[in-house]
Amino acid sequence: MDSKEKSGIVMEKEKPAEIKKSGSHSRKAGNQIKTLGKESLIYGVSTVLARFLNFFLTPFYTYYLPAGQYGIVAAAYSYIAFMNILYHYALDQAYMRHSADRELAFSAALKFQFCTTAFLTFALCAFASFWAGLGGIAIKYVYYSAAILVLDTLTLIPFADMRMQHKAKKFAFIKSLGIILNVLIVFIMIGSLGCGIDAVFQANIAASLFQACLLMSEFKLFRLKNMPGTKKILLEMLRYAWPLFIAGAGTMIVQIFDRPVMLKAMDEEALGIYQAAAKLGIFMQLLVNMFDTAWRAFVIERIGQKDAPHIFAKVFTYFTAFGLAAWLFLSFFIADIVQLKIFGKSLFGPAYWGALNLLPIFFGANLLYGAYVNLLAPVIVTKKTWISLCVTLTSAVLSILGNILLIPLLGMKGGALALLISYAVMCIMMFLMCRRIYAIPYEFRKTAILAIAAAACFILGIIAPSAFSLPARIACALLFPAVIWNAGFFSKDEKAAIRAYLKKRILRK
Length: 509
Fold this sequence. Notes:
By secondary structure, this protein is mostly helical. It has helices at 3-64, 67-88, 91-97, 102-126, 128-135, 139-154, 156-164, 168-192, 198-214, 230-256, 258-265, 268-279, 282-301, 308-339, 359-374, 377-382, 386-410, 412-434, 444-462, 469-486, 492-508, and strands at 341-342, 345-346.
């Protein structure tokens, strides 16, 4: 027997083993992705409730607050969002990454954060008139903002510890109660008592204080006295956190810089209308936030596993599929839902309908941010947080320039496009910079098929004549899942597993 025949025999013998190994990887990946999905859903209870209740405050505001006043609320909360980055400086992510020495890391992180919070709050309150003039808001909103920031920072490390200890149900319970209280106070103070926009901030303060009280039992790990190794682990956490902190500031600039630019370039009323439309992006944000809450801990726990890159790649593919399906559905139908009148009233007041045509852009931008979160896996694994720093700072500069150039030229659409472009650049840069430090076999052929199919369905849905617009959009929304199922997205084994799971669920019911 010659060497070629021997080689052929060896290959034939090895094939079944390779197939078996591949199938084992797929089953293991499926089980771990299922775990990620379960925790995402549990965290999602609080996230969905929080976002939905806050979302339903938006139509409430559109009927009870003039667009100008709502514009002030939008501007103030954009400043709070940015200041949250300064107050938190990614210390929760650093704690999660170093939580192997849980008690030492917990005390070190809390003590340092108490000091920085005190310093920042003094700087805000002592120079309140300066900050108020710079931001174009009243001084009292600076004090309100400082109180909200202090209370939110107090709960940061305890909530991060819950995530690492898989206390998802308790996490969701406390978050949900705080949000429910916030919404109830707003409804009572503004809807029943006729209070002004001060009630928005006062309700937030009361809810944040309530959450902090519920978390008191989580402070049992805290030790006032320094333990051996405190300084070392604190320095390690700060080295890990500072690039993420600057990266977070860059990301926040991308998310909020359109608000102050629009306030200066247009007026408070335009900002209020724009903010109401941007709030509708919540439906895509829910998908991203539910995933993100569980994703970082999921990645950290799989550091060192040989099949981790394969699992991360599968997660990216599935996220893309479900995200694009959600983008299509939301882009096709949310504007109709918002304008639908029930008992003579629509979800948003008619004065706020002017920016509904921007919704596909907002949804697309939020989906791209979700893709960016997926692509962070190599940074989390290798601790090379400087990559996030480079990516987000570049994107922040692009956002600043984009908003300054596009908003005066295109108005509200300019702000939405600047957001979309900035997130797209973040995704591209993150992939290009990470592929050499930690190789993940992303299934780009499948994701390309998904993107092309979604774009085609969207175009077909929106170019239909007005008389057939709704049936065309419904047909195109249903066509996309059919493409996913039949265009090679799922393997035969994956299809069989899905059928078996659905059959089991149906029989159980």
